Amino acid sequence: MKILVLNCGSSSLKYQIINMENKEVMCKGLCERIGIEGSQLTHKVPGKEDFVQVEAMPDHKRAVEMVMAALTDAEHGVLKSVDEIDAIGHRVLHGGQKFTKSIIVNDEVKAAIRECFDLGPLHNPANLMGIEACEAAMPGKPNVAVFDTSFGMGMEPKAYTYAIPIEYLEKYSVRRYGFHGTSHDYVCHRAIEFAGLDPKNAKVIVCHLGNGASISASIGGVCVDTSMGLTPLEGLIMGTRSGDLDPAIVQYICNKEGKDVNEMLNILNKKSGVLGMSGGVSSDFRDIEKAAEEGNQKAATALEAFRYRVAKYIGAYAAAMNGVDCICFTAGVGENDKGTRKAICDQYLGYLGVKIDDARNDVRGKETLISADDSKVKVLLLPTNEELKIAMDTEALVK
Ligand code: ADP
C-alpha cells in the first residue's frame, strides 16, 4: 500500500509518499509561500537531485495539483499514476474533544474540524483546505485525519481539567489537550517494542525536545498527562515559547508597557523561550549552546533553565504514574544533543536510579539504549517519525 502523507500549514504543505510494504519514504517535498508571491515546490527523491519548481500557487488546491504532477513526472516522479496512491493521511492539529483517534474523513469529520477553528486558528483551516484539495484532485480516494490532540484524549479529568470555573470547560471546552500527540504516541509505543516493556503496564515518559517542546507520561501507551495545554504554549521552555508561567505576569506587563493581551500572547509564543531569555541570541539550541560555551551568561541560564524544566516535569510525571520504567528522548534536541540528555539525567534524576552510559549516549538520531545496564530506569534515544505514524494509522483504517 502507498500512502500520501500531508501536513498543511497556512502557507505551506509538506508531503511524503510512504510505501507501507517496507516503510520506505519514496519521496518527500514541500510547497512554500502558498498564496504569497514567490511560491515554490521542492521535491526530493532519495538518490536524485532535488526538483525545484517556481510557480504561482494561489491556494492549497493548486499546491496539491502541483504535488500530483511532481509525483507522476516522467523524470522526477515516483508513481506512474496517482491511482497508485491508496489513501491520504492528513495531519490535523486540533480535534477538540470529539476525536480520540484517527478517523476516515466524511462530511461530519470535516464539520468537526471546522468547529475547532477557534482552538487551532492557524492550522485547522489549512488542514481542512488540504483535505478538500485532495478530495478535488483525487476523487474517491480515502482521506484520513490524524489529530495531534488524540493522544491527549487518554487523560483523566484530574489531569485535563484546569482549576478555573468549570463553566469554561462546559461552555468552551477549555481543558488540557496536549500537542505533538502523534509523536508521543509513536515514541511511547516504539519504546515498548524496542525495550521489550510490558505493553499493558509500561510507565513511559517521552521528552519531545525540539524547537517546540513537550513531555508526556503514559501507561501502556495511554496518555496519563502531557505538558502542552489548551494551546502549545504551556509546559516546557521552548525555542520561542515561554511554557509555564504565572498568568498574572500578562496583566502586569500589559499595564507597565501599555500592551494588550493579544500582543502579550504574541510575545509569549514568538519572542520568549530561550530566544527571549538569552536576550535575543537565537531560538536555535545549537546557537544557545555555542553562546553559553563562549561565556554568554544569559544563554547559559536559558540552557540550564530549559534542562531544569524538563527534569522537573520528569519528576512530576514519575509521581503522577507512581513510578517510571522508561524515559525517551526525541526530536531535534532530544535526538542530537548528548550534553542535554546527560545533564538532565545526571544532575536531576539520580534519585530515580537513572544512570546514563556515556559511550552509549555518544550517538545521534538512532534508536539506542543510552542508560547503563544497572540503571533502574531504561533511557532511550528514539527518533520520532510523525509521518510514518500518520501513514500507519491511515493504512490501518483503510485496509
Ligand atoms: P521543530 O519540529 O519543533 O521545528 P525539531 O524537532 O526539528 O523542531 O528540532 C529543532 C531544534 O533541534 C533546533 O533548535 C536545533 O537547534 C536543535 N538541534 C538540532 N541538532 C542539535 C544539536 N546537535 N545540538 C543541540 N540542538 C540541536
Explained architecture:
With 399 residues, the protein is α/β, with parallel strands linked by helices. It has two domains: 2-147, ATPase, nucleotide binding domain (Nucleotidyltransferase, domain 5, 2-Layer Sandwich), CATH 3.30.420.40; 197-381, ATPase, nucleotide binding domain (Nucleotidyltransferase, domain 5). It is built from 15 helices and 14 strands. The chain has an eight-stranded mixed beta sheet, with helices on both faces. The protein starts with a strand and ends with a helix. It binds adenosine-5'-diphosphate. The site of adenosine-5'-diphosphate has 13 residues, from helix 10 and helix 12. Adenosine-5'-diphosphate binds at residues 210-212, 239, 284-286, 289, 331-333, 336-337.
Keywords:
globular; 399 residues; alpha/beta; 14 strands; Nucleotidyltransferase, domain 5; binds adenosine-5'-diphosphate; 2 domains; single chain; eight-stranded mixed sheet; six-stranded mixed sheet
The CATH architecture category of the largest domain equals 2-Layer Sandwich
In angstroms, what is the radius of gyration?
A: 21 Å
Order of helices and strands: EEEEEHEEHHEHHHEEEHHHHHEHHHEEH
Structural class of the helix and strand makeup?
alpha/beta
Strand fraction equals 15-25%
Name of the CATH class of the largest domain = Alpha Beta
CATH topology title of the largest domain: Nucleotidyltransferase, domain 5
Annotation, overall tally of beta strands: 14
CATH superfamily of the largest domain: ATPase, nucleotide binding domain
The tally of structural domains comes to 2
**Segments where pLDDT lies below 50 for 5+ residues?**
none
Q: Strands of the largest sheet, in order across it?
A: 5-4-3-2-1-6-8-7
User: Could you say which overall geometry the principal axes of the C-alpha atoms support?
Assistant: globular
Mean pLDDT: 97
Amount of helix: 25-40%
Distance between the termini: 9 Å
Major sheet? 8 strands, mixed
Which cofactors or ions or other ligands sit in this model? adenosine-5'-diphosphate
Alpha plus pi helix count = 15
